[in-house]
Amino acid sequence: MTITPIPPCSRGPLISAEGLNGVGKTYLTNRAVEALKTKPLMLDEFSQRANGRPGLGETLLRSLRDASAGDPFLRGGTPMAEALLLMAIKRHDLDTVLPDLARGQTVIEGRSVDTTAVCQALLLHPDDPDAALQTATDLLDLASSYRPLPDLTILVTDDASKAVERAQRRDRCVFTDEQADFMRAACTLFERLAATDPARYRVVDRRSVDEYEAAEQIRAWIQGAGGALACLMEPWQGPDAACMCCGRRTTAEAA
Ligand SMILES: Nc1ncnc2c1ncn2[C@@H]1O[C@H](COP(=O)(O)OP(=O)(O)OP(=O)(O)O)[C@@H](O)[C@H]1O
Ligand SMILES: Cc1cn([C@H]2C[C@H](O)[C@@H](COP(=O)(O)O)O2)c(=O)[nH]c1=O
Questions:
Q1: Per-residue confidence at 2, pLDDT binned at 50, 70, 90?
Q2: Spacing, Cα 24 to ligand 1 middle (Å)
Q3: For the whole model, what pTM was predicted?
Q4: Among 70, 126, 153, 187, which residue has the fewest nearby CB atoms (within 10 Å)?
Q5: Boundaries of each Thymidylate kinase-like domain copy (predicted)?
Q6: Residue 254 has pLDDT above 60, yes or no
Q7: What Cα–Cα distance (Å) separates residue 189 from each residue in 63, 77, 79?
Q8: Confidence at residue 136, expressed as pLDDT on a 0 to 100 scale
Q9: What pLDDT is stored for residue 84 in this prediction?
Q10: Distance between CA atoms of 134 and 122, rounded to whole angstroms?
């Protein structure tokens, strides 16, 4: 029996933008996209969904908002149950863009399962950064059994205090000391998590590049993400499953 590899999938790349509230994900990604001839499909961050699109994802998000009584990090006191709901929302997001990926469109998610891994791991281990890192990695493994991880994850990072300032100015609010501390811990954990998987993450650090360079780096990463992508498999179906985008199986038996 000979196994003949088949050509790469014609799907588009799935890219996520990650980082703290107010770090500039939306601002820089929009700047980057302005410079692209072919525009990606942008999947809104959670706060942009306030007015509600119909559907299951929105309903799940509303129940998290209700249960967390206005907490900016959707903390309702049961971090693992919340983690599973957040992963379900991110699975729902993927479901809604599968037809776009299948026709070759680039899709950019404003936040993906890495935010879930970081925030929920910090809630599970508020005083133990190493345990939080291990749990964040484990939560990403769990998330990757719900849905494929993004092909590329762009982490925008900065001094946490600068991100806090920008988010406060934008939202005309003042974070409590506890919320600002949570953001500082999330900043460190995002950076440590990114370092565990350099193949998937690209990090733009606003402490060392200005906004023009940052937007240009992001543009180049988005532009370079397409082409020669592997098929997108249902993680829970194993390696012989058909691609969610092109419908093919990754290996074909030849006579
Ligand atoms: N280089 C910059 N110069 C001026 N304003 C900026 C810059 N970067 C970001 N901002 C502003 O800071 C605010 C926060 O940025 P942005 O909304 O992009 O953050 P974000 O990472 O998407 O945050 P969140 O996840 O909370 O939505 C916005 O009002 C944005 O316009
Ligand atoms: C996806 C996700 C989000 N959050 C938090 C992070 C923010 O404080 C809000 C949503 O804001 P956004 O920047 O507009 O997306 O929700 C979270 O705690 N866990 C998550 O998985």
A1: low
A2: 4
A3: 0.93
A4: 70
A5: 18-206
A6: no
A7: 26, 20, 17
A8: 98
A9: 98
A10: 11
ipTM for this prediction: 0.88
**Amino acid found at 46:** F
The one-letter amino acid at 85: L
Strand 251-254 to 2-5 pairing: antiparallel
Number of neighbours of residue 160 by Cβ within 10 angstroms? 22
Please name the residue that has the structure tokens 């907490």: 71
Give the bridge partners for 109, in sequence order: 16, 43
Is the separation of the CB atoms in 119 and 73 below 8 Å?
yes
Other CB atoms closer than 10 Å to residue 106's CB: what's the count? Answer: 24
Amino acid found at 118: V
Q: Across 69-217, where does the E strand assignment appear?
A: 107-110, 152-157, 201-205
CATH no. for 7-52+91-226: 3.40.50.300
Q: Is 14 in the pocket of ligand 2 (CB under 6 A)?
A: no
Q: Which residue has the tokens 């999938």?
A: 9
Q: How far is the CA of 47 from the centre of ligand 1 (A)?
A: 13
pLDDT tens per residue, range 25-65: 999 999 999 999 999 999 988 888 766 567 899 999 999 99
Q: From 27, 89, 119, give the residue whose CB has the most ligand 2 atoms within 8 Å, as the site to mutate.
A: 119
List Cβ neighbours of 212 (8 Å cut-off, separation of 6 or more).
Answer: none
Distance CA 235, CA 82 (A): 21
